[in-house]
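Field: COMPLEX_INPUT
Field: COMPONENT_COUNT = two
Field: RESIDUE_TOTAL = 346
Field: MODE = joint
Values follow.
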Amino acid sequence: MSVTQLVLFLILGAGFLCLLYFFAGRAGARAERGADALLEAREALNSLQSGLLPPDLIVRIFARDDLNFITSMESPKIEGVFLRERRRIALQWVAQVRKQVLNLKRFHSGESRRYAQLNPRTEIALAFDFAALLIACRVLQIVFYLRGPYAASGIVNRAVGAAGKVCVVSERSLAFLRSTNAGGLGGRSTGGSAALL
Amino acid sequence: MTKSMEVQKAADDVRGRTLAKIPRPLDRFIYLASMRDYNTGLYHHEGLASRFSQDIACEALADCHREVYRQLISCSLEDLVSQIEAYMDSSRTPARDFVSAWKGLEPYRVAVPVKSDPFSAEFLFSNFRIALAIVEERLTTAQTPRGAA
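Field: COMPLEX_OUTPUT
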């Protein structure tokens, strides 16, 4: 074997090593992204179930008895403070729900197939639920902004119901990632809708 | 006895001996928040720690704090206003000073349990702001002479 051939083999070997290193790095990064997506989905689910969808919290945010109490005071100043605060809270609530639902949707359309075997029917139903839920959230944002928090109790009920269903399916996909959530409101959403009226 | 059973027993002890004597959720909420060390976030109660252990007492108080926090969030606005007025009376602070301090310092912000969901905490703060505006309005109305408006 000549020196030229030896150098050629060495260069080829170094090239293969570089390729191997490159692909190993990419696989590692993909695994890391997958783990991040899983944790993000778990956090989104915890936030929805414990923080945003507990029926007693939703009932309280949109409670008519609070509005009746305020109007009975016949004070335009207090009514103004109340409606401003409630609208802010309602907008914040729907924005948070939308954000967490988008996180779950991202997980389902990307990573969930690796961890959970959902049948095609469930996947299609889930896709519809996500789409309906995101549209409902947009409609709620517009209605809350234009007409205040008490103008769309029917849509709130339907959105909460759809969000509950999405949570149940996501819970199944993430069942292997159990995490305890010490905070939150404690009463976890069961997937049913909170009746507001 | 497992640790969770001991915590449960200690929490029942807190409910039965101490919290039962405090009539309103707001008072219980402030009492339990005052049991927590601001620097460490750990709850301290000498009597409870001597009956159980410091660790068990801390967890039991944290459980009770979260429970009272949930109760407070579930209160109607009317109920919250009555609780603030009753608490204000029991504090023996002049009403105007009390409202001014609570509106300015917002002491309820540091009284929420650790790891509370940020949205539920924000909802409670919003309710406090509305309730304080109502208490302030009532004070103004009570001080305005009849016929002055």
